[in-house]
From TrEMBL, chain A:
Belongs to the [NiFe]/[NiFeSe] hydrogenase small subunit family. This is hydrogenase (acceptor). NCBIfam families: hydA, TAT_signal_seq. Residues 76-222 form the NADH:ubiquinone oxidoreductase-like 20kDa subunit domain. Heterodimer of a large and a small subunit. Residues 1-26 are annotated as: Disordered. It is an enzyme of class 1 (oxidoreductase). It comes from Thiohalocapsa halophila. Residues 242-321 form the Cytochrome-c3 hydrogenase C-terminal domain.
TrEMBL record, chain B:
Residues 23-134 form the HupH hydrogenase expression protein C-terminal domain. Belongs to the HupH/HyaF family. This is Hydrogenase expression protein HupH.
Amino acid sequence: MATASPQRTDGRPAPTPQPTLGESLRRNGVSRRGFMQFCAATASLMALPPSMAPAIAAALESARRPSVIWLSFQECTGCTESLTRSFSPTVENLILDTISLDYHHTLQAAAGDAAEHAREEAMHANAGEYLVVVDGSLPGPKANPGYSTIAGISNYDMLMETVADAAAVIAVGSCAAFGGLPKADPNPSGAVSVQDLIKDKPVINVSGCPPVPMVITGVLAQYLTFGKLPELDQYNRPLAFFGQSIHDRCYRRPFYDKGLFAETFDDEGAKKGWCLYRLGCKGPMTYNACATMKWNGGVSWPVESGAPCLGCSEPDFWDAGGFYDALSVPPGRSGDMLLAAGAAGVAVGTGAGLLARSKARTAEKQHETVTAEQLEEKL
Amino acid sequence: MAPIGDIPIKIEGEPAPPAEYGNALPVLSQVRHALAQLVQGGEPTQIDLGAMPFGPGDEERLMALLGTGEVTATVDALGLTHIQETAFSGVWIVEYLNTDGQRVALHLEVDHVPQLLRSQPEDLGAALAALNTQLAGAPDAT
Ligand code: SF4
Ligand code: SF4
């Protein structure tokens, strides 16, 4: 843990204590006001009230940089792109520098044996205390390991070996958290999620395709600040970011409640910013922070740009029916769902989320493929 | 990386008129409640506007409702922070930017003086020591 004193039972020498964050900031000439400014931004980042800034300052003052090993398996690098391409360089650099990214497949300059050596070094030097961040799913123990290997090591072996001495694992993105697109029917590579394999360590799922960058950084900041893991929901996602549905925080909600829906992407309702439910918005069944944290440094988010939420932070969203069908109903059954939920408007409210979850499971069983032409027709 | 505002975008046709999503007034009530708390018990409040489900135009509407007061201040520490008093005394808009000028947080502070403008207690001791050193080193120091 971030503030734990190094205690070793394996006979290896204790690692040299890293400078605290307060010390490194002062060494870099950051003033107290600069630090308070940083803490105010960090509070927002962690979805904590601004009044927590002094507590964050006190904790960060003495926080030491925990070692982080980042493994990338069957993924598209979108999660790393999300983290490194957007949001605030100041907060992010400070946090990433501070968390000591000792090994990152995609970002590190080293390759091959040298890179693997860096991973082993970090593991030995910080045994029991380091965090493993994983993006991407991986072929399960019974699948052909040849679908994804790094330096000749199967993803499965690398994960199990790296996690053995870790304090906790953070699965970043819907692939690592739930299997993601590699697991989509018929799952040719036998992809599984991290939590399918790791049963003896805390696994925190930061889902999303990709996750909101502030959420990735926020979870790391929370660990760095308070030295403990966040409170989680039923899918092991941090409640601070995944505690409320997109629908509950959506600015178009007043239109949903009044039964005012856009029927096509360019009708009068769409132009007036009405609810996108009938265009397939999965907001009622999706738990994520987009509606308030938004994307691209707070510029906008999909619903604000006129696109329905695809439900990308939910398990199995990739196989739960057409993206443009209301609430994950397989093609051909949209009408029933609209009668059940759309017309009723107000009455549905939170119940829609629960209904949607069971419908999503049904949809998954009745999964039908949709061609690009069919999609075009719908649009 | 180029700031997102620098990406050239050509908008065809008239931009949609700003809609009224009705999210500004509830925040104004929250501010009223916070100001009452400050007046009655001296208790300050900070409101994170980044955590509000604002639609396009909601923030502008709230800012218009809050108006502009007499004081503006800029803190230059790890990026600029712009502080603006609103037309309601004791209600401050605090916008935190990073070193690239991108907003990292937008808060409303209901307080006599925003926290960030106060001298930080830890800095006072260091300032005293620095002054002592300067005086000791000055040629005409007594
Ligand atoms: S259905 Fe979608 S667009 Fe409509 S209020 Fe819910 S989240 Fe917003
Ligand atoms: S709006 Fe929905 S689909 Fe889009 S990023 Fe957020 S959770 Fe994912």
